Each structure stands twice: as C-alpha cells, then as structure tokens.
Amino acid sequence: MRDEPLLNVSNLTVNLLTAKSAVRPVDGVSYSVRQGECLAIVGESGSGKTVMNFAPLGLMPTGVTTMLSGSVKLEGRELIGMPESEIQKLRGKSVGFIFQDPMSALNPVRRIGRQIAEMAELHLNMTPRAAEARALELVKLVGISDPLARLRQYPHELSGGLRQRIVIAIALAGEPKLLIADEPTTALDVTVQAQILRLLKDVQRRLNMAMVLITHDMGVVAGAADNIVVMYAARAAECGPVDKVLVSPRHPYTKGLINAIPRREDPIGSEFRGLPGIPPTLGAPITGCALAPRCELAVLSCRNIRPPLVRSDDSAVLVACPVVNQGKAAA
Amino acid sequence: MTQVPVLKVENLQTRFKSVQRGKFVHAVDDVSIELYPGEIVGLVGESGCGKSTLGRTIVGLEKASSGRVLLDGVDLSALSGSALRDSRRALQYVFQDPYSSLNDRQTVGEALDEALVIAGTRSPDERDRRMKELLDQVGLASAVRDRHTRELSGGQRQRVAIARSLAVNPRVLICDEPVSALDLSIRAQVMNLFLRLQKDLGVACLFIAHDLALVRQAASRVYVMYLGKIVEHGPSQELYDHPGHPYSQMLLASAPEVDPRVEKLRKGPLMIGEVPSPTNPPSGCRFRTRCPLAVDDCAKAIPPSHSLSPGHSAACIFAQDLHCGTRSAIHMQAA
C-alpha cells in the first residue's frame, strides 16, 4: 500500500445551472480513499452524495451546466479541468461503476456475455475471443452458478440479484482501481442485499481495489466499509473510521440517523425515534449550519457561521459542529 | 381475542396468466388472514412473494380467482354496484410512492376536496371543515392547502396521500411499503403518524413492508409470506424472538447490523439464492429449495401449520424444534 491515496478529493464544490435554476449540491467537501480501502458516503436523497462522485467523472444529465471547483485527484492526476476525451478513457477503465437499478444499467437486447466482453475489448484491447473468455472468468468471480449458460441469457431472464452480479462483473471487466457503487443494494431484498454486499467486499479485497460505497442506509455500512463520510445538505457533517463513527457518533445528525434505526429492545407500539423537521432544499448556499433548524443543540451562532469540519477529541474523527467540538475543549 | 375481525381473508387465491401458454402464476395461494379493529398487523416477505398482490386483491385492485374477503362479516364478492362501493370505502390503500400516487397539477386542497366529494360530503362548508380536520390529523399545516402537491417533500406528499385515504372514514388501511420511498430522517415521523391514527381513530392497518425492524416495532402481529403462501404468523415479539419457520429465521438474521462490533461477530447466515419463479413452485414446501434443513419429506407434501403458542403457528415440519431452539437454520448454514 502506497502512502498517496488513490483518490483524493479536496474542497470540492459543484454548482449546477439549468435554464431555470442554480443549485449547489456539493459545497466544499474533502475526502480520500486509499487502495484496498472502502469508503462509505452516507446521506439522504439530495445530500449531494451521488453528484459528488459522478460530476467530476462527467456523468451528469444533459441540459445541465456543471461547474466544478476544488480538486479531485485520481492516482495523482487532476480530474477537474481534464478534457472530456481523457475522462472518457478513465470511465470503465480506471473507475468501475455499479448503479442502483441493475435493470436499467444493462442493455435489454444484448446477451449478458457480450455486454461483459465489450468492456474488456474496449478497455483492455482484447480480441473478441479473449474477451469472451474473460467474461466467463468474471461471471465465475461474481459467484454465478452455471456461468456458461448465463452468458447466453438476456437481462430480463435473470433475477434482480443475478442482474446486480452481472453489473458488478461489467464494472470489474476493465480492471478498475476504483469502484464506485451507488446504492448497489437498494433495489434488492434484505436476503439478497447481504449476498451482494459480501460479494462486493470480497472482490474489493481480492482485487485490492479502492471502493466508494454511496448509500442512504446506515445498515449496509458496518459490514462493508472502513471509513465513512456522513453528508447533510451538500456538506460533510462527520467523517472518520466506521468503528468509531458508528459506535460513538458525535455530530447531532449522525447521532440522529443512527438513533432513528429501530432496535430490538424498543417496545412494540412505542414511538419511532427520528429527527424533527425536513431537510433543506438546495437553493442558495446556507450561511450557517444546515442542520440548525432541526438540531436540539443549536445555538445562535449555528445559524450565522458555517461550522468547519475539524478534528474532534478523537483525532481520527472530524466533525462539523461547533457545539460538539466546544464540549471537547471544555472537557 | 373474542373480538370480531374487521377484515377476514379466507383461502384467497389470485392467479395471473403466465406468458407460457396454459400456465398460471399463483401470486397468492390459499391465504387466510385476520385483522381486528384498531390493530396494526405486519405482512413481510421478499419481493415477488405476493405480499403486494395480496393487498391489492383485498381492496379489489386485482380479481381473486377464489376465496373470500369479508369486511365486518360481509362477503365483498357477494356485493355489487353501490353496495360494493359503499363497503369498499371502509377499505383504503396507501401506496408506496407518494410521487406517483398524487396528481402533480392539483393543489393539496383540490386533492383532498376530490376525495371528500367521492366520500359523499356534499356541503362545501362541511368539506372545508373536514379538510381542516384531515390536515390536522396527518400533521400538516392548513397553509399547505393552496400549494401544489409537486411542491411538497416526499414525507409531506405521503401525509397528503394518507389524508386522502382517511377522507372516507375507513376502518382498514392497507399500507403497501408506505415509508420505503421516504428519507430515513422522515420515516419515523410518518410511522408515528400511523401509530397515532391507530390510537386516535381506531383504524386497523395491514402494514406491508420488507423492513423487519420497522414492522416489529409497529405491529402487534406479523404474517410472513413466501411464494404466495403464509408460512408463519404470530404476535410480533414472540415471532421475532422464537421464529418457528426457517424462512422467518433466516429473513430476520439477514437484516444488517449498524454497530460494526456486532456486524463483525455475525458469521452468516446468507440466504441461498432467490425466490424461485411462482410459475413452477417447488413441490411440497415451497421454501425447501433454499432451506438448509430440508429433508426428503419436505418435497412430498405441503407442510401443515403447526400451532406453537397461542396465536403463533408455522408451516414447517420442524416448527416445534425451531421454536424451542433445539434446531436452527442458521447454525446449519454456518456449519
């Protein structure tokens, strides 16, 4: 393992301009992922977790002008300002993608085998025959039974879990160094979710890749990730090792999210715990802390000054909450 | 429970024509359930197990091929025309996705007014009064009346959808994954709304969901469905603590843990494979193809339901052993 992180994002801000509106879905976020490591990025819808990962790689809807600032370095190469033709070579090659809905990620009218082989041909310059052999290898790698028969099938013939395994095989076909998985198990059942998570973790370790796991579900983090970034309203609220952040969350939002998960010891028929209020809409950047209207710890200054992400009493954990951090100073 | 069930489903069967000629998909196969007044009952299972079809058949969105749905003891299939419409009003459905269940072009006021007109409230003043009451019941400020539903957040939209279903004073709500489209921090608010409606209005609720932890906390009783059949049902605490069916046991154990210390200790179990096609369900016990405990006898006949404790029964030949802990599907997997 080298010292230099494989992916280093610092102070990334994304502005999106459409004909009607301007929003800032990502506001000064920094994080890094090393080779062989898995980083979970957790947040609710609209927190910017997906845009943050896809915008620097040019994966944005058409009709939207994307303006990026800050720095995103992949293996030391700066992605911001890189021409699209260069970025195109990275997508699928150095960076593999796994999307939420395996059905729409696959081409419905082409056989599975071809869809995997195509990637190997394109990115590894393989001959069609070699690529087919590689496809077979990959299908075995993602734990699919009867691999030869599967290669000849179409996506609609497979179950959701099998389709997601195929999407993973396609993502691995270009031998990526970084795997970005966007809600890879959200469309699946709990039983299949456990299988897919275990598979992802397994291939990530075996191929020594870096992985970014984007999710809204705190439940999938513990089993798969080493580090975590908790996003709220375009900003990072807390980040650090999973063992620390999930066990003793510091930021009121992280606390609230973990606290909101029903526990076995909760009496039947008892009130569900949750956060009051609703997340802010992404319009103009918020001057103070975005959580302030929903936070019970909030003091007057929270509404005026944007809290910086600073080291907490545990140096591995960074928290963007002045109230929590002040408590540390007093202690 | 000496009460009369408000909703009783007897041997309900819903089948669809398969793409393969002459074949049928038995999405719901011989299902019987009961709902008592003011009770929240969970219905859990993997996708494709028929839980939504069961809900849809109960309210009449799908046609039952056999069996009966009784509302307050009245067989709905025996009714027609206005009598059926009147009865059906007592049975309302809350859909999963509040983004597609509401008309974007309507304001909240229009959406609710429409429901009240259908409910037969003629006088505009009366409708106005009811509208205020409904908004209050679902925890929305009366100012949202003039806003378009498209301007609202997911949680607010789901509240509007619930208010609409309450407009007709239903006795039973069938809620099909009502919070799974909502953000985590909002879910609790909507779940608490259901708990309050049950307490304040005495509405009985069939809560269809795949999130087991959510169901455990909200529901007093739970039905577990697998491939068109109810495999186990019982009081939630009892069923969660001492499941009597290997499927329930494995489903419960599949739920991920948030605490990494607990997650690391968890060795398995990984449920093998996925739900088989309901066009050709396995013979005998339908779960046998994925069950680590399956023996030859499982393929021969559909296992009868074994009563394990009051109100708790499971359809597995090992139900008794699983229930008292002398046998486990999970340990079999780990070994």
Question: Secondary-structure blueprint of this entry?
Answer:
The complex is a heterodimer of chains A (about 325) and B (about 325).
Chain A: E1 7-17, E2 22-33, E3 38-42, H1 49-54, E4 65-74, E5 77-78, H2 84-90, E6 95-98, H3 102-105, H4 112-124, H5 128-141, H6 147-151, H7 160-173, E7 178-182, H8 190-206, E8 210-215, H9 221-224, E9 227-232, E10 235-241, H10 242-245, H11 252-259, E11 310-311, E12 318-319, H12 322-330
Parallel strand pairs in A: 3-8, 3-9, 6-7, 7-8
Antiparallel strand pairs in A: 1-2, 1-4, 4-5, 9-10, 10-12, 11-12
Chain B: E1 7-17, E2 24-35, E3 40-44, H1 51-59, E4 66-71, E5 74-75, H2 81-89, E6 91-94, H3 108-118, H4 124-137, H5 154-166, E7 172-176, H6 184-201, E8 204-209, H7 212-218, E9 221-226, E10 229-235, H8 236-241, H9 246-254, H10 260-265, H11 297-300, E11 306-309, E12 312-314, H12 319-324, H13 329-334
Parallel strand pairs in B: 3-8, 3-9, 6-7, 7-8
Antiparallel strand pairs in B: 1-2, 1-4, 4-5, 9-10, 10-12, 11-12
Structure in words:
The complex is a heterodimer of chains A (331) and B (335). With 331 residues, chain A is of the alpha/beta class. Helix content of chain A is 32%, strand content 22%. In chain A, the strands form 2 sheets. In chain A, strands 6-7-8-3-9-10-12-11 form an 8-stranded mixed sheet. Chain A has a 4-stranded antiparallel sheet with strand order 2-1-4-5. The longest helix of chain A is centred in the middle third of the chain and has 17 residues, at 190-206. The radius of gyration of chain A is 21 Å and the shape is globular. The two termini of chain A are 37 Å apart. Chain B is α/β, with parallel strands linked by helices and 335 residues long. Chain B has 13 helices and 12 strands. Chain B has an 8-stranded mixed sheet with strand order 6-7-8-3-9-10-12-11, with helices on both faces. Chain B has a 4-stranded antiparallel sheet with strand order 2-1-4-5. The longest helix of chain B has 18 residues, at 184-201. Classes of the chains: A alpha/beta (331), B alpha/beta (335). At the A-B interface, helix 7, helix 8, helix 9 and helix 11 of A face helix 5, helix 6, helix 7, helix 8 and helix 9 of B.
